[in-house]
Amino acid sequence: MIIRPESPTDIPAIRDVTIAAFRDHPHSDQTEHLIVDRLRQAGALSISLVAVVDDEIVGHIAFSPVELSDGSKGWFGLGPVSVVPQYQGRGIGGALIRQGLDMLRDQGAAGCVVMGDPDLYRKFEFRNDPRFVLKDCAPQYFLVQPLSSRQASGTVNYNAAFYAGGDGQDGVA
């Protein structure tokens, strides 16, 4: 497996991988591919990596800047992360997460947040922290990983791409 930054020619495959990965996910509204597209269009796709097996893109991960109500800078949100179903359970998603977090550290990021399965993300040193809040998200599903010693706290706001309607218009996802 090779993990590398996305290239413009990867965009259709990234879309297909994301659609396939979330097709049967019980907590998905099947708009994750639109989120990635909107992040890219907004210039907010800070890190976008693909996993390639036998010259085929089988996984993708996105990281984008988030805002904290205390004004702290250098924080990012992880997601979506996608692996096509037939390759799930082989460590591809984990490899994408680790590579992306390493890249954030190398860039001097302050930290990363994620909304998702706590059992999964704790494996990557994310933890629940009551100092960080995501509106309308149960606290157990919102996790944080500081990547520096800079202190931060507050309400977290993801890029507007996460909140636009499935039709690409402003609204709530």
Q: How would you sum up this structure, described in words?
A:
The protein has helices at 11-22, 32-41, 92-106, 118-122, and strands at 2-5, 47-53, 56-65, 67-68, 75-83, 111-115, 132-133, 142-146, 154-157. It has 173 residues and is an alpha+beta fold. Strands 1-2-3-5-6-8 form a 6-stranded mixed sheet, sandwiched between helices. The radius of gyration is 15 Å and the shape is globular. The protein has one domain (2-162): Gcn5-related N-acetyltransferase (GNAT) (Aminopeptidase, 3-Layer(aba) Sandwich). Helix 1 packs antiparallel against helix 2 (32-41). The chain is built from 4 helices and 9 strands.
Q: Would you kindly provide a brief summary of this structure?
A:
With 173 residues, the protein is an alpha+beta fold. The chain is built from 4 helices and 9 strands, in the order E-H-H-E-E-E-E-H-E-H-E-E-E.
List keywords for this structure.
3-stranded mixed sheet, 173 residues, Aminopeptidase, alpha+beta, 4 helices
Trace the largest sheet across and list its strands.
1-2-3-5-6-8
Main pleated sheet: 6 strands, mixed
Please give the alpha-carbon distance between the first and last residues.
Answer: 33 Å
Poorly predicted spans: 166-173
Spatial extent as radius of gyration: 15 Å
Estimate the mean pLDDT confidence. 92
Order of helices and strands: EHHEEEEHEHEEE
Q: Classify the helix fraction into a percent range.
A: 10-25%
Q: Which class in CATH terms?
A: Alpha Beta
**DSSP strand (E) fraction?**
25-35%
Structural category is alpha+beta
